[in-house]
Amino acid sequence: MASLSTPTAVPSPKLHKARSASTGYGTLTTVTNGSIVRATINNPPVNLWDYKLAADFSTFLGTLAQNANTSDVKVVILSSANPDFFIDHIDIHALSAASPESPPGTRSVQFLVSLIGRARALEYILSARSVDAIEAAAIGWVNRAFSSEIELESEVTALAERIATFPKQGLAAIKSRVNIQKPSEDAIMGDNSLFTQLEKSGIVQQSQDRYLVLSANESANTFEKDIPQDLPAVLT
User: Fold this and answer.
1) Which of 85, 190, 204, 206 is deepest in the core (most CB within 10 A)?
2) Residue 25 near residue 65, CB atoms below 8 Å
């Protein structure tokens, strides 16, 4: 395990408020090139998945859906302005805030099971261990792994340009048929309900306090960069 940086004391997460939702695409910068839109995530310091980023994604995707019949957009590429983080993790402050709504990003278990299968999903979720790009590609978590950022950018751009050459109606029809295989809404909501229930337990509340201390309030310190490898330290 990598050495941890000196913890910085922070108030209990119970005293924090969730970051306020922004309007528009405050944490997303979008650039349109013909039928391709590139959305770059920029939610410093570590691109936390918080209410702000979730709201901006919702607005962005809602706009795409609303304009689907009139827009020329066929492909969306997601990238990050932060070289160390794509989307780091759910914001601990959002978990701690008292709200009748569930925190964003708490419904992903079923999607992982559908991607890599029950046995592997259990292995990775129960151990909370990290996985590199090569391993992820080998088990179907991601499509491919690349040896460099330049190669990744080149291949993604070429794929997006190829997809954009086909008729929008055909692309939409294919996606609608493939998406039949996605998890049911009942299964997804079951994940969400169980997450919300467990999040209220005493050990989770204590772990949130500990996490904020070790991560220096979710900053880009050594501990945060080594998650999930350093995660057992939260429970000690």
Assistant:
1) 85
2) no
Crossing angle of helices 109-116 and 185-199, rounded to 10°: 130
* 21 phi/psi in degrees, rounded to 5: -70, 140
**Phi and psi angles of residue 192, each rounded to the nearest 5 degrees, phi first:** -65, -45
* Amino acid at position 155, single letter: E
Choose among 83, 48, 80, 77: nearest CA to 64: 77
What pTM was estimated for this model as a whole? 0.82
Whether 218 shows a pLDDT value over 70: the answer reads yes
Contact present, 43 and 27 (Cβ < 8 Å): yes
User: Which of the residue ranges 5-14, 27-36, 140-149, 152-161 would you say has the lowest mean pLDDT?
Assistant: 5-14
User: With contact defined as beta carbons under 8 Å apart, do 8 and 236 qualify?
Assistant: no
Q: Which of 48, 44, 125, 126 is nearest to 92 (CA)?
A: 48
Say how far apart CA 101 and CA 96 lie, in whole Å: 12
- CA dihedral over 175, 181, 187, 192, signed as positive or negative: negative
Biggest CA pair distance of the chain: 55
Contact status, residue 89 vs residue 13, Cβ threshold 8 Å: no
How many Cα atoms are found within 13 Å in the side-chain-facing hemisphere of 127? 10
Mean of the pLDDT values across residues 146-163? 97
Share of the chain above pLDDT 90, in %: 61
Ranges assigned E (strand) in the chain: 28-33, 36-41, 75-80
Cβ neighbours of residue 223 under 8 Å, at least 6 residues apart? 4, 5, 214, 215, 216, 230, 233
Is omega for the bond preceding 13 within 30 degrees of 0, making it cis?
A: no
How many other β-carbons are positioned within 10 Å of the β-carbon of residue 219?
16
